Model the fold of this input.
Amino acid sequence: MRNPYDQDRYFQRLAALLQVTVSTLEASVGRPKPAQRSKRQAGGALETSQVVVSAFRQVEGDPLEERVLSLMLQHDDLLVRCAEVVEEHFLRSENRALLRAIQDGGIMGLDSVKPPEEIWNHFERIAGCDLPPSDKSQRDADFDGCIRRLEERYLRELKAQEEAVLAQVVPGGSVGIEDDRITEVNLRLKEIFGRADP
Done:
């Protein structure tokens, strides 16, 4: 598809159909960059090429997501707070699957967490990860900070994607309902920064 706006629109639709974030889909299959015009073919038609971002570009693991999961799996007082963690804020599919397993059974205790077999090794690694010694107030602050940073990262990425789409649609600005959505994201980011620790 040559039109970058259409590419982005269909890519977002695919992510919605698969019920994953755009970032997760991007990490799994790569994402086509806007078609670039290159040499002319016979008859004057322009030939286009697309560069696909490699799925292997992602760094192995996500320390922030894994920290939240590890804190919950190693401390019952945080395990019962699993509903506060938003799956949509996670980029990596194995971490999302583990979060779902925690949320499905976590309130009943660690023994109730039944991750899918394909991520069992990942579950064991996260559950056995070495965390520094801390008291309850330090753990709560760590957990809250991680959740805030996950949301901030998600909102920043959402904002960047929306601005990229709007720049392609309306050069130099945006209009209407998209402005409202960007304003909403900006206000939420401001609220997060207002709560951030100094």
About this structure: The chain has two domains: 1-58, 63-146. The radius of gyration is 21 Å. The longest strand covers residues 36-40.
